[in-house]
Design a protein that fits this description.
216 residues, five-stranded mixed β-sheet, globular, alpha/beta
Length: 216
């Protein structure tokens, strides 16, 4: 493995990547990532989960509170809603590889210090974590990437990305040196925050159906 002595203020995970690129090696290496300061307060690294042969890669923003505690992506309320939406759209969640653009939970404490409140990662933090996502893409080689929300979109497509402008469409872009097809949609957590949750949920399902059709 490459040296792991790079300072946190270098803001890159590159020195922590293993020499051999497979999911097991990546997961082990990511557990010790110190490529940016986010690891300090997080409980653990939350790496991607799923088959190396998955046809679809789902990319979210970052782990939430439950993911940080359990060490797996999309196991909290947003993850459960996503699983339901995927099934309704006709995609078995077990056939997808799920991950996040940022692998550590970024949060601020509520006033009572009894609850951790999600805080959006910066572009610098997303960039620091980019080598992990690039490695996951090289290993899995998905036929399609489902982009879940604005942060994931900016991590993959640049800072000008606006999910509302392209959601539910099939994009073709070069991502980390590979031609990829992507379908952007909202992050399931935004559905949970919506004033009209049912309408927001059906919008998510409709976007995921576009992804299913793109795979057929």
């Amino acid at each position: 493995m490459a040296t792991t002595s790079a300072p946190e203020d270098a803001y890159t995970a590159t020195p922590f990547l293993p020499d051999r690129l497979n999911l097991a090696a990546l997961r082990r290496a990511a557990a010790g990532c110190r490529g940016c300061p986010l690891h300090r307060d997080a409980t653990q690294t939350v790496f991607g989960k799923g088959s190396a042969h998955a046809r679809v890669m789902l990319v979210g923003e970052q782990p939430g509170d439950q993911e940080d505690r359990q060490g797996e992506p999309f196991v909290g309320p947003a993850g459960r809603l996503l699983g339901k939406a995927l099934a309704e759209a006709g995609l078995d969640p077990a056939d997808a590889y799920v991950t996040n653009a940022v692998k550590h939970f970024k949060f601020t404490w509520a006033a009572t210090r009894k609850r951790r409140i999600h805080k959006a990662p910066t572009l610098r933090e997303m960039s620091a974590c980019g080598p992990w996502l690039a490695a996951e893409l090289r290993v899995v080689k998905p036929e399609l990437i489902v982009v879940l929300g604005a942060t994931a979109g900016k991590a993959l497509l640049g800072s000008s990305f606006r999910v509302g402008e392209v959601r539910g469409t099939v994009l073709e872009r070069e991502i980390h040196g590979r031609p990829e097809r992507l379908v952007p949609t909202v992050h399931p957590s935004s559905v949970l925050r919506s004033d009209d949750r049912e309408q927001a949920y059906q919008g998510l399902v409709a976007d995921l159906k576009v992804a299913v059709q793109a795979l057929s």
